[in-house]
Amino acid sequence: MTAGSYCYIGPQGIVHGTTITVLNAGRKYLGTEDLSGKVFVTSGLGGMSGAQPKAAVIAGCIGVVAEVSEEALQKRHKQGWLQEVEKDLDKLISRIRFARKTSRLFDVVVSIGYHGNVVSLWERLVEELHNTGELLVDLGSDQTSCHCPYDGGYYPVQLGYEEAKEMLYADPDRFKSLVQESLVRQVAAVNKLAEKGMFFWDYGNAFLLEAKRAGADVGVKDDDTGLKFRYPSYVQDIMGNIFSLGFGPFRWVCTSGLPEDLEKTDNIAIQVFEKILEEDVPPVVGAQYRDNLLWIREAGKHGLVVGSQARILYSDRNGRIQLALAFNAAIKNGSIKAPIVISRDHHDVSGTDSTYREATSNIEDGSAFTA
What we know:
Layout: H1 12-30, E1 39-43, H2 52-59, E2 62-67, H3 70-79, E3 84-86, H4 89-106, E4 111-115, H5 118-132, E5 139-140, H6 149-153, H7 161-170, H8 172-195, E6 199-200, H9 207-213, H10 234-243, E7 248-254, H11 259-277, H12 283-299, E8 310-315, H13 317-332, E9 340-344, H14 367-370
Parallel strand pairs: 1-2, 1-5, 2-4, 3-4, 5-6
Antiparallel strand pairs: 7-8, 7-9
Helix pairs in contact: 1-2, 1-12, 5-8, 7-8, 8-9, 11-12, 11-13
């Protein structure tokens, strides 16, 4: 899906989508557009989940991402997608506390990779809450590959990484049983933190679905259908609000292949969106333009271009039209050297329709029944 378009954008789509998700989760669940000092805890540094720490930094919060594979973690660290690595839970908790203080005082953000199982981290956060009364996490999610939890997409907390890999092949039934126990423990810890004010959402990875199948407490009381979950889905409850405004991601590629052309398109996008914000736009629409202004100002600084000189951005119809016209003018006057190809992204409006992954978390269009 993400790589399916001929307008190849490398990792930008998921970084930008995650940035937008985190910003809007903060806006909706924490009631703030300033995420300074806020902590986002999640897991997964493999494929698309590897975008989470970079997105957290762009969004302005403290990103803490657990990963059981040292290879995946070190890869993201070397790529610059992850700023720090920690293996010791005591040191990680101290680092989170320090980051919360410095972020508020000096507007400093950081992404931290924890080499370990996220269940251990969630349970330690519960322990800290119990012992000190301090809630060290504000936003939470999960991006392990729970669409295939028993085939290596999710590793049980009871075993080390290498030991778990061996059991996966030697005794898959036992591995499945441990995964289910681990999911139940993870949800139990998340529930305790959520009761004290942490906001958790399903990130379209079938986490809530598989947790429910494992017997975890993720249901809603008095739900006769048995289909509702206590936690929201990012599609229905976060991105759905954005899609309903007509905002969605689109891509453009500078066919000249010149980095300077891409930089010029970034600057044009900034000018176009700033001009739109000077108009009388509804507050909810203005919030989305501001989020995308933040993205477009930061995107060029983070080494996201792979191959094609391409960019991704969210906008509604008005913004897309104004941007296309501005591109046309820049090509006509020669400031941009060659045509620009504009395409779409699979996450665009109506593009997210996987019933088992996205549509099982309280989606209100009926597809949960289909799943």
